[in-house]
Amino acid sequence: MNQTSSPLRAGVVGAGVFGGYHAGKYASAPGVSFQGVFDPVSDRAGAVSEAHGGKAFDSLQGLIESCDVITVASPAIFHHDAVRRALLADRAVLVEKPLAATLEEARALADLARARGLVLRVGHQERFVFNAMGLFGDLPHAQTLSARRMGVPSARNLDVSVTLDLMIHDIDLVLALAGSAPDRVDAQMDAGRAGLADHIRCRLSFPGGLVAELESSRVAEARDRVMEIGYQGGAHVRVDFIAKTFDSQGGLALNPDFADAPEARDSLGANVAAFLDAVRGSGAGGPAADGEAGWLALETALRIDEAAGARSRI
């Protein structure tokens, strides 16, 4: 789709927290006409739409017909239906993670987007922070990685495991660095409700030699999001995603001022902008995750939950 001469009409499925964020990004984006929101809870759809100058749609189909590009920010169980219907209508889609609730659904969406030549992107926005630091640049081979992503209790995303809720961000980053799926997954659930993981630890071993140890919790006492990477030759970096700082050793070619870069200050906005550029044909999407990357992140997350004996969703 090439829409360089006329505004892209954009809409959002889901009027939760992230639906509101996406609505705000579209409403303020140049060359975009924000149309509104569809959510089964009409009051919420009305509030988000009104706040950003759009309207509340009575049906998903009505939103799809009125838009060129669509963000799907509903609960994961509804992703497949909304994304599929939008793709079948030849609309480009940005869907929040995870891509879908099951591997079969995720594969079907990735294949459908490819078959129809449509842009499908997944909301793995931490990639843009990584990119701003230079961690996707020409660096030595990563040999070890440890990541800790801890969150405090909240009412968000309790229909899925912490693996699909929080850890999937670090899973996606590890997969992007490794360039392949892990050939071994070991995991342990430390806390959970009715088998649904709230605190999980795992070890991922990759064919290229990278070993990654990840830990995520959504029942922690404080937020903490740190990653450490050890490279061939002894170089090392420690990243604090909350403070947006890093410490490095070994002469790594990283950007010390990355926190001032637009894609680090507003990674969601950077992902939306890259999505719109890809739709217009004016950019390849930068480090954005496509349908294949979304599928692989979901596949790895489900393998982790299975190894830990945990359920992935209610």
TrEMBL record:
Molecular function GO terms recorded: nucleotide binding
Family annotation (InterPro entries): Gfo/Idh/MocA-like_OxRdtase_N, Gfo/Idh/MocA_Oxidoreductases, GFO_IDH_MocA-like_dom, NAD(P)-bd_dom_sf
Gene3D superfamilies noted in UniProt: Dihydrodipicolinate Reductase, domain 2, NAD(P)-binding Rossmann-like Domain
Lineage, opening ranks: Bacteria, Pseudomonadati, Pseudomonadota, Alphaproteobacteria, Maricaulales
Pfam families tied to this protein: GFO_IDH_MocA, GFO_IDH_MocA_C3
Domain GFO/IDH/MocA-like oxidoreductase residues, every copy: 159-229
Gfo/Idh/MocA-like oxidoreductase N-terminal domain segment(s): 8-124
Entry protein name: Gfo/Idh/MocA family oxidoreductase
